[in-house]
Amino acid sequence: MRTITTEEIATSVRALCLDAAFKLGEDVKCAISGAIETEESPLGRDVLTQIVENYKIAETEDVPMCQDTGLAIFFAEIGKEVVIDGDGTLEDAINEGVRRGYEDGFLRKSVCDPITRKNTTDNTPAIIHVSTVEGDKIKLMLAAKGGGSENMSGIAMLKPSQGLPGLKDFVIKTIRESGGNPCPPIIVGVGIGGDFEKSAILAKKALFRHVGSKNSDPVMAELEAELLETINGLGIGPMGFGGTTTALGVHVEKHPCHIASFPVAVNIQCHADRHKEVEI
Asked: Tell me: the pLDDT tens digits for 220-269?
C-alpha cells in the first residue's frame, strides 16, 4: 500500500487550477492553428488569429485566457493500493485545492446557490466523479468549465427505434440552436447509452480526450467524423461570425443501456478548452 496525503492532493489541485486558467493545451493550440489554414471565411480566419493571440498573452502574462474561469469539474481515478491520509476526505482535499488555486490566481469565483444565487466566495464545491482503478497512484483530471458552453448542452431520452438517424438529428439540432453562444470553435462531447445521468457523464468525460483523437471503435470513429463534417457545414463559424470552423472535434463515448431506452447527451466545450491532469 502507498500513502498519499490530503495536503499533496490539495497542492496538486491548486497547481492544476492555475495551469488550466493560464495555459491552453497543445492539442487545442494545434487544432486552432490548423483551422486558420483551412478556414474559408476571411472574418473567420481573423477571429481564429485573435484567439491565438489571446491564449499567447494569457500564457506569457499568467492571466486567465477567459474572464469566465469556470466551474471545476474533476474525474479522479484512485488506485486500489492507495491509502489517503490527513485531514478530511478526498473531496475535502480537492475542494481545498480549488479554493487555494482560485484565490491565489485571482480567478473569478463563479459558484453560487442555484436558488438564492448567493456566491460561495471560493469557487467550491467542485463537481467530482470518483472511480477505482488498479495501482498505487491517484490521477486527477480537471476541466474548468465555463457557463456559456455548458448552458448550450442538452440531453434526450430517445426511442430505440430512432436509432442513429435520431441521434445525429439531436446532436446537430443542439449545435445549430447553440449558434455562437458557446464561443466556437467548440469541442463536442457526445454520450450514448447508460441511463439519464450516465449519458451526461459520458459526454462530459469525452471532452477530456485530446482534440484530434479518434474513438478506438471504428463505428464510433466514423460517427465522430460524420458529425464533425456536418457541424462544420452549418456555417456558424468562429465565435458565430460565419465560416467553416464551428467545431475542432467531436468525441463520442457509449455505454450499454436498457432495451427500452436510448439516452443521448451532448456536452459542449468552448475554444478555451481548459482540461489538465496530474498523476500523484
From this structure: 999 999 999 999 999 999 999 999 999 999 999 999 999 999 999 999 99
User: 154-184 burial, b for 16+ CB within 10 Å, e for fewer?
Assistant: bbbebeeeeeeebbbebbbebbeebebbbbb
Residue 134 lies in a domain: yes
Contact 88, 94 (CB under 8 A): no
- Residues 38-81 have pLDDT tens digits of 999 999 999 999 999 999 999 999 999 999 999 999 999 999 99
257, 133: one domain: no
pLDDT digits (tens, 9 = 90+) for 190-202: 999 999 999 999 9
Of 145, 180, 198, which one is at a domain's C-terminal end? 145
- C-alpha cell recorded at residue 19: 495551469
C-alpha distances (whole Å) from 170 to each of 197, 227, 259 are 17, 11, 20
Domains in the chain: how many in total?
Answer: 2
| Cα gap 147→151, rounded to integer Å | 6
| Of 88, 119, 145, the domain-final residue | 145
